[in-house]
Amino acid sequence: MTDPAGNSSATSDAFANFTIDITAPGDTNPAVSGVEEAPSQHSRS
Question: Whole-prediction pTM value?
Answer without folding.
Answer: 0.19
